[in-house]
């Protein structure tokens, strides 16, 4: 654990909050511009998050949250853990941190100009390295755990695509087995795999995909949605075939609804946000614990819906109750399953609110706007914070979403 920040540094960082509120995004955009000018560092990032502006925004919010909570960093524990897990998935190492320090301090000086006094830059240097040492320490622990786990590994490990399965018009699954035919680390339901991919005409790319296979299988499975304009998702769907080798890092992520012990579980998802819950359902069924499971899923159309037969089969066996919502099409007339109710429209706060059970554990995964809406209605209905769990796609932390 690094030495605590001194009172003067804390005071300066707190005084910078108004400047971060006004110029935080400008600072992080400039920071990434500097970082990405280095090819060795650029290859560590998911470049799609740069193109859509998600990464700079997420970092600006995280830096602002850090400044606001500089005297109460315990409030940021969840965010720090998510960043550490993301870094481990992407194989970020201690030697990468100085590049970020130089880019951040240079960006602060560039954007704030004369307002970025030597005193302010010194304070931010101390604050950066204080947080960096916390992250480096936690990441070292995760790397060591991965190395020690049966079937575990550190770094990139080659996996072969054993099977490629079309789950719907927009989602395809890839079943992955290690090239060396040795055992693989058992993942926790809800975790993801990170990939280092060489995409023709686009170069090296990094992506994270939730694991949709049940823990303990002899393979990992990811289920990928084809994104409009998505460089990697379109390449996976159209070009990658069975037998191709992909570089994969060990399972990572702190969203593990499969570990919940509550007998009342709600899995609340939209779109491809269902994928970690497919793994979760496999974990629930495997451990034999009797649970009351309510699966609520929103999709655009029946053609987009994946794992339909799997969910219907579980419902038929009374393993779960399901509500499926179709936002862009009528309810399909050729589907009728025990314990499955079909709805036209979106999953709304109005529908959720009267059905809230404050004794249940709620697990949420989907677009940020969907998660915000669901978290808001559950919180207002009185569900305790420690019974609301959610997965963040994309960048490592969205401080607005986590309420930091």
Automatic annotation (TrEMBL):
InterPro entries: Cbr1-like_FAD-bd_dom, FAD-bd_FR_type, FNR_nucleotide-bd, Globin, Globin-like_sf, Globin/Proto, OxRdtase_FAD/NAD-bd, Riboflavin_synthase-like_b-brl. Pfam families: FAD_binding_6, Globin, NAD_binding_1. It catalyses: 2 nitric oxide + NADH + 2 O2 = 2 nitrate + NAD(+) + H(+); 2 nitric oxide + NADPH + 2 O2 = 2 nitrate + NADP(+) + H(+). Its EC number is 1.14.12.17. Residues 4-140 form the Globin domain. The keyword NAD applies. Its cofactor is heme b. The keyword NAD applies. Keywords: Detoxification, Heme, Iron, Metal-binding, NAD, NADP, Oxygen transport, Transport. Residues 154-258 form the FAD-binding FR-type domain. It is an enzyme of class 1 (oxidoreductase). PROSITE patterns: FAD_FR (PS51384), GLOBIN (PS01033). Is involved in NO detoxification in an aerobic process, termed nitric oxide dioxygenase (NOD) reaction that utilizes O(2) and NAD(P)H to convert NO to nitrate, which protects the bacterium from various noxious nitrogen compounds. Therefore, plays a central role in the inducible response to nitrosative stress. NCBIfam families: PRK13289.1. PANTHER family: FLAVOHEMOPROTEIN. Belongs to the globin family. This is nitric oxide dioxygenase.
């Amino acid at each position: 654990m690094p030495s605590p920040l001194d009172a003067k540094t804390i005071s300066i960082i707190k005084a910078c909050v108004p400047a971060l509120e006004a110029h935080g995004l400008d600072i992080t955009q400039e920071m990434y511009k500097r970082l990405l000018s280095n090819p060795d560092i650029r290859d560590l990032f998911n470049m799609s998050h740069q193109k859509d502006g998600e990464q700079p925004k997420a970092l600006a919010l995280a830096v602002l949250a850090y400044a606001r909570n500089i005297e109460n960093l315990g409030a940021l524990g969840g965010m720090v853990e998510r960043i550490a897990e993301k870094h481990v998935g992407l194989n970020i190492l201690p030697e990468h941190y100085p590049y970020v320090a130089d880019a951040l301090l240079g960006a602060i000086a560039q954007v704030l100009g004369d307002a970025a006094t030597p005193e302010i830059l010194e304070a931010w240097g101390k604050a950066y390295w204080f947080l960096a040492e916390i992250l480096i320490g936690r990441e070292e622990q995760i790397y060591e755990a991965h190395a020690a786990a049966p079937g575990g590994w550190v770094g990139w490990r080659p996996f072969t695509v054993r099977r490629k399965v079309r789950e719907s018009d927009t989602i395809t699954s890839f079943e992955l087995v290690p090239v060396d035919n040795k055992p693989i680390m058992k993942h926790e339901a809800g975790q993801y795999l990170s990939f280092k991919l060489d995409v023709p005409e686009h170069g090296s790319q990094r992506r994270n995909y939730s694991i949709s296979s049940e823990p303990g299988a002899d393979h990992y499975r990811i289920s990928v949605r084809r994104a409009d304009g998505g460089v990697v998702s379109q390449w996976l769907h159209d070009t990658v075939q069975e037998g191709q080798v992909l570089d994969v890092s060990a399972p990572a992520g702190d969203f593990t609804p499969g570990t919940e012990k509550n007998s009342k579980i709600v899995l609340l998802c939209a779109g491809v946000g269902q994928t970690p819950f497919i793994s979760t359902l496999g974990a629930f069924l495997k451990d034999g614990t009797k649970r009351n499971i309510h699966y609520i899923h929103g999709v655009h159309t029946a053609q987009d819906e994946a794992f339909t037969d799997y969910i219907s089969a579980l419902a038929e066996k009374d393993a779960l109750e399901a509500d499926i919502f179709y936002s862009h099409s009528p309810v399909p007339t050729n589907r009728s399953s025990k314990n499955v109710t079909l709805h036209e429209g979106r999953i709304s706060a109005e529908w959720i609110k009267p059905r809230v059970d404050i004794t249940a554990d709620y697990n949420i995964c989907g677009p940020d706007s969907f998660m915000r809406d669901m978290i808001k209605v559950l919180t207002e209905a009185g569900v305790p914070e420690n019974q609301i769990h959610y997965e963040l796609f994309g960048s490592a932390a969205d401080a607005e979403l986590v309420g930091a």
